[in-house]
Amino acid sequence: MISLNIPKIRCGGCVASVEKAVLSVDPAARVTADVPARRVEVETTAPRQALADALAAAGYPVQEH
User: Fold this and answer.
1) Which of 1, 13, 14, 17 could lock 9 by a disulfide, CB 3.0 to 4.6 Å apart?
2) Measured between alpha carbons, how far is 51 from 36 in angstroms, rounded to an integer?
3) Angle between helix 12-25 and helix 48-57 axes, rounded to 10 deg
4) Are 40 and 4 in contact (CB under 8 A)?
């Protein structure tokens, strides 16, 4: 499980964009978003950096802890 802080996630549309970016890296990934916490949990075998790169390219950069 990979936890990602994504400050720009604010609504259902954002969640859909984040899911699309994650699934572009790993189509089998499972994404759970907590919009108020600005956090996304991803069950995947993909490397964290690959997810972070895809999210940044989609306009949702990951904030490091």
Assistant:
1) 14
2) 21
3) 130
4) yes
Query: How many alpha carbons lie under 13 Å from residue 5 in its C-beta half-sphere?
Result: 5
What residues form DSSP beta bridges with 41?
Answer: 3, 32
Q: What is the pLDDT of residues 5-40, one digit of tens each?
A: 999 999 999 999 999 999 999 999 999 999 999 999
The amino acid sitting at 5 is: N
Inter-residue contact 59 to 8 (CB < 8 Å): yes
